[in-house]
Amino acid sequence: MSPPRVSQGLSRHDGYSLLEVMVAATLLAMVLGGVLPLLTGGQNTYEAQTADTSMRQGARVARDKMTRETRLAGYRIDNLPQAFMSASSTSIQFAADIDDGDPLPPCNASFENAVNGGAERLTYSVSGTDLVRSVDCWNGSTWTNVISNEVLVPDLVTGLPVFRFFNANGTEMTGPLSSAERDAIRSVAIQLNLEDTSYTHIGDQDHATFQITTQVEIHNLQ
């Protein structure tokens, strides 16, 4: 009896050799090595754009709030001697009835209904890299703090002026202003210089910086 014949239809190899596996792994590593930096770079770019957009929007909201409140400086404070209580390049404090007598917070009915009460005292100041806001309520004789160092704008570029002050002639008054100079304030320029430090950049990329400005006219002072 002749021995059984091996089928010629079987392939020469039933699997891959170690050399073939190593070559394939090397090629795969080379492809991934080229693709992963692109994916990482794209993710970082997306995160950077998202962070920048969020910061810009937040800064605009804060600027609009400061504009509304600062414009009211001196409004309905007949019982107080002065609207602007301090003014420098990094801080400003003024009195105004910003809620127009509304007994809702921040100043409740005990302040609003007191004899000669109802005014608020607003303070904006630079604290480190933050611009913060504080609110005090007037009951006709004393101030009571109700909001302390609320962060309005984070990530300010330090060392740059935020506030500038001008009299009725448009002349800028610099330095910490005296009492007479504060009485002469008729407009306030607000300049927010910001730097986005919320994410890590690749290589030598710089953090994004930008500036938001506004000019506030004061209409309640004579």
Give a short summary of the structure.
A hairpin with a 3-residue loop joins β1 (84-87) and β2 (91-96). The protein is 28% helix and 28% strand.
Can you put this structure into words, describing what you see?
There is one protein chain. This protein has 222 residues and is α+β, with helices and mostly antiparallel strands. It has one domain. The chain has helices at 18-71, 109-112, 179-183; strands spanning 84-87, 91-96, 120-127, 130-138, 143-153, 163-166, 172-173, 187-195, 209-217. A five-stranded antiparallel β-sheet has the order 1-2-3-4-5. It is elongated, with a radius of gyration of 32 Å. The N and C termini lie far apart (126 Å).
